[in-house]
Structures are given as C-alpha cells and as structure tokens.
Predict the structure.
Amino acid sequence: MSQHTRHEAQAREERRAKAVQTLACADLVDAVGRIHQHRAHILDLVSPSPERKLFGRAVTISFFPTCTQLLDAETYSFGRLFDEAMQGAAADAAHTVLLLASNGHPGVSMAGGTKLSRLSNQGLAGVLTDGRLRDFDELATEPYASWCSGEAVSWGGGEVTPYLANVPVVLGGVGVHPGQYIYCDSSGAVVISEADIDGVLSVAHQIRNDDAGFRTAISSADGNGPIVGER
C-alpha cells in the first residue's frame, strides 16, 4: 500500500469513527435491519468502563478447549496469535478492535490486564469478547475500551487456548468476519460489513433525526393519536 493510499484509508476510518460519536447501538441496529434480515447485535455485555464506546474493524482470535497433548503452549500462545491477528488488520491500530471468541465458554476468562497490555502498546481501540475478562480495576485505567460477558477471577488457560487468528468467529450468536466493523456501547454491540458501513451510518443518523422529529410531534400532539413512522 502506497503512503498516499494509506493516508486516504486512515482519513476514511477517522471520518467513520467521528460519524458514530453521536449514535447509539440501537440506531445502528435499526439501520442494519433496514438492509439485512440477519441478526447483527450482541447483548448482555459489561465493561470496567461502561461509558466508553468501542468502534473499529475486527481482528479475531478464536479459542479452543485446552489440550496440552495436541496444543503446545508455545505455538498456541496469546502473544503469537495476537501478533498474527494484527498482521492481518484491515485498518491502523487506532481503528482496530480485538475480538476474542470463547466458542461456547462464556464463563471463562479469555485474557486479563497483563495479556491485554499489548492493546495499549499498539494503540488499539479496544477488545470485545463473549467470554470473561480479568482485572477490571486494571482495565479501567487503560486507554482502550473493554467489553465482555463479565469479570473473571480465575485464569482461563486450563479450559481454553488461543487457537486461530483472523478467522470468522461467532460472538453471542452473531457471525463476525475479520475486517467487519464493530460498534459497542452500554446497551450492546453491533456488527456491520465493510460494504455497508457508510450506508448504515447515513441511515442511522437519519433515524436519529427522525426520532427527534417524532418526539417534537408527540409533544405537540398532547397524546391525541399515534405518530406515523415512530419506532
């Protein structure tokens, strides 16, 4: 990629990141729903810093049940898989979200403050997992956003192992491909394809503007009948 092309791509990601700042997850879910029929949202997420929104393009690590006989710790390590995932990142680090897929182990820790310090070192936007994360107190002081199924207190390496990087994964029943866009706030997360992102952002802003108009109409109507088009 030439330097000019790289600068164009970075400017595009920054423009999209700015466009989501005034949106909520529900706006984007509604916008995706006007284009596709498949489920794109993930619920029941928590964060050590729930006021932080998360947005960027996905890189993935898929976990697998631990088997020391077949999966040696050196090959299947978080550090090696993280490096491999970042090599396939579709955007610069500031607009990249690390996804950790538990593959049926939502109650197990996928990582904690020490392993996730790599996100600070490389300047990632944040991490999203359908498993648990450790060290909420530490994660709350980090510059990136962290979203997960809950806080863990025990190490998860005895149950799951980082297995594959930058492969399609499933989080909370939603399929995610590397390079797709992730948005997450305190109400949930949504997955948006690269081909749809600009259209979804445009429709989401229109939905938000329409809602403002509906609230004005409702206030003026004084309860005298329904308002056509309100969601």
In short: The longest helix spans residues 197-221. Helices lie at 3-19, 25-33, 78-87, 113-122, 136-139, 197-221. The first strand starts at residue 41 and ends at 42.
